[in-house]
User: Fold this.
Amino acid sequence: MLRQSLEVVCKEDFRKIKIGKHQRSNECVFDCDVTRSACSYTTEGHHTIQICEHKTAIKVRAKVVSRNSCLIICILLNVKLRIARVNMPVFPQYLTPKQEEELRNIANAIVAPGKGILAADESTGSIGKRFAPINVENSEENRRRYRDLLFSTDKSLAENISGVIMFHETFYQKTKDGTPFTKVLQDKGIIPGIKVDKGVVPLAGTEDECTTQGLDGLSERCAQYKKDGAQFAKWRCVLKIQQYTPSYQAMLENANVLARYASICQQNGLVPIVEPEVLPDGEHDLETAQKVTEQVLAFTYKALADHHVYLEGTLLKPNMVTAGMSCTKKFSKEDNARATILALSRTVPPAVPGVTFLSGGQSEEDATQNLNLINAIKGPKPWALTFSFGRALQASVLKVWEGKDENVAKAQAELITRAKANGLAAVGKYQGGLDSAAGGQSLFVAQHAY
Amino acid sequence: MPSFPQYLTSEQENELRRIANAIVAPGKGILAADESTGTIGKRFASIGVENTEENRRCYRELLFTADASVAENISGVILFHETFYQKTKDGTPFVKILKDKGIISGIKVDKGVVPLAGTDGESTTQGLDSLSERCAQYKKDGADFAKWRCVLKIGAHTPTYQAMFENGNVLARYASICQQNGLVPIVEPEVLCDGDHDLETAQKVTEQVLAFTYKALADHHVFLEGTLLKPNMVTAGQSCPKKYTAEQNGKATVVALSRGVPAAVPGITFLSGGQSEEDSTLNLNAINNAPGPKPWALTFSFGRALQASVLKAWQGKKENVKAAQEQLLVRAKANGLAAMGKFQGGQSGKASGESLFVANHSY
Assistant:
């Protein structure tokens, strides 16, 4: 319900007002249960009334009950009302300038030059798949030990890692000596982030398409995470390229749920990372991947606009544009980079401060080289172009660690190597060949879900 | 896999891109001389000139035979159908006159606004029937770009979803057809300045309208690199009691565009609406100097704001032609500087300070 101030010009002494039909022209009639004013309305002149607008029509009808008390409701008949601020659409302020500034600052800090995100938000199930190849049991303690390894890396990590996305369990875990992970990161100058979606669910009637759930109670959850140290959030939607997909329904639904998520985050001081991932599964060519990515992004930004999301306080986490994993034709990294920039330039408004690419199934080295080329080639690129890598930052780390304490330092060194490489790529200066234990290995997982 | 049939060859894409880039070359913009017969009549009435075909021909001849240096700041001219096929006194087609100066000819192809039943005074724009054949003919006869104007109004409950969706859609259909025929479509979703709304409202409405516009262009597979946008500058309503500076307008405009216009669009050619010549130039200059991501060219496509002083100087009299052409050169140069953010101000013409507002303007 909207409260508005009105200027009321009374043309007549109220005491002389007769009860009767009011004129249609210039009339404003209120349903007024809630007019309170300390002013007396018995005299001619300007009066301000706080009124409650029930519907779209603003009506004024007030009744004089008591001229002396504070609660005055009066009948205004044959009165010309000059209404301030009525004849225009309403865009209620939903973020104060301070809130906007905070969101903007966080977003810009995440995509500062040479920096990107470590996506360490694998769900319990997903991290199990990472542990399996190195024969590490998927226990809570092992999950804690592994993330402890990552976050206790030398503070020079913060030269290239601006933020870390965590899963709920991890967000509340601590080091062996009892220091919360969020504090460990903050002390290094790394911004903690939190994955807030609750996984994909199928869309009935579609060809194996899905949406993502997690909106229930999201506002309260976000408020709590913010209190506990998070500054940004992440939500992943998934679209697939098949014969008849992605469908209009899937693109519309996923974009809409991303926009609702983003809106709620911003209300709670968290920068939303918007992730509409187009999977690389399939045999489609590069051009198809590009066109589908453009479509998906067009739906995404239309939904963000419709839900009044403050773009300057968001980030985008898209797929790089590449042909399907089973495509017989091979494309160069330059081709991929060009297609990626084309897709983004056609859909991502310049107001978005940065694009933090996901690595998908790419090997560590491919992800870095692709990111480098995206930054190096020409084209309209008004946003930062950096990384939000999971597998492509951690593959070598896991391989070297093997679950053993004695390997921790060496594993951490791998992380620094990849972070540095990607930091260079994020400014188009990667020279290549920074060797890592798993550098060339494809990390593709079919139909990847967290 | 999904199918995206090729609908523009690489050659076609390159041609469209080249034309669009040439129109928004640094320091250059468009002279919008496409007033319909009815509208030019209103301009003539204010200087006591009869609205005859010959007078219309005379007046446009005045504009197009201005000194060749006008091409330093005017990259293209939009023409109305009648004008497109008119000639100078010695029989040279206007299109050729312009071409010889290195100025690109454009053609207005819409057929005016029509009401949307069930809305509060909202409209869409007609002109899609046989548009493809018309575009092909215009292209043959020398046009390289086209223009189509849609109109949205800020009122108590407008613009509505219906109006924004419909106008976005019709602009996208027009743009798609133009590109099929080698014409760069200038997309014009004008939000009128009528009303007493404040600057912030104008900005939010403009953002909404642009979001609908670019979603429609995406849905209709319009090749963005071969289009231009002709929006309103973001300003408060004409009757808004609160006054804003050019800097404020410039900032609000850039914010709205940065949120709604993809970087792939090569340039934005602002309409002047009801602003005076001087205000239009000052606002364009402020836009170019405003902070923010601005990956597109920001220039002008002015009608009234380039011609008001010209008309006033001309008065319909042959002996005034040179003086009138001088006025055009002055305004063109001023706006060329503004398009690069380098306008110093004070280049006054006979009508530079006069508001050119026409309530509920339609062509």
Observations:
- The mean pLDDT of chain A is 83.
- The interface with chain B takes residues 56, 86-89, 91, 241-246, 282-285, 287-288, 291-292, 294-295, 298-299, 301-302, 305-306, 311, 324, 342, 344-351, 380-383 of chain A (CB under 8 Å).
- The first helix of chain A runs from residue 97 to 110.
